[in-house]
Amino acid sequence: MDIKAQIKFANTSNRKVKRVIDLVRGKGLDESINAVRFTPFSASKLVFSVLNSALANAKHSNLNPAKLYIKEIYATQGPTTKRFRAGSRGTAKPVRHKTSHLTVTVTERGGA
């Protein structure tokens, strides 16, 4: 049984999130949570949050947490909000606030 957890419209670019999720793809869920907890990137908090959400969803579905592993994890680009900031000589400089969507799918090892 596949369990899914996702965070949408996170205030981090998907490029920064992909650095962290590449470390945990295909590993066990407990191992991944510990690895992300001690990773020094800013997106680690976001990935840690979605992994804990997936763990809670799996416990709610009566799955064994020790057998869970990350079947699929990916980050996609969300909408970009565009703002302007004052520049030199009275000009306006564009500022883009990037967002991302993060999705995790976990399942038990050995089928079922």
Short description:
Part of the 50S ribosomal subunit. This protein has 112 residues and is an alpha+beta fold.
Give structural notes.
With 112 residues, this protein is of the alpha+beta class. It has one domain (3-108): Ribosomal Protein L22, Chain A. Helices cover 33% and strands 35% of the residues. It has 3 helices and 5 strands. The model has no long low-confidence stretch (mean pLDDT 94).
CATH class descriptor name: Alpha Beta
Globular, elongated, flat, extended or rod-shaped: what is the shape?
Answer: elongated
CATH homologous superfamily designation: Ribosomal protein L22/L17
Tally of distinct domains = 1
Secondary structure elements and pairings:
Elements: E1 3-10, H1 14-24, H2 29-37, H3 44-60, E2 68-77, E3 81-86, E4 92-97, E5 100-108
Antiparallel strand pairs: 1-5, 2-5, 3-4
Helix pairs in contact: 2-3
Question: What key attributes describe this structure?
Answer:
alpha+beta, three-stranded antiparallel beta sheet, Ribosomal Protein L22, Chain A, 112 residues
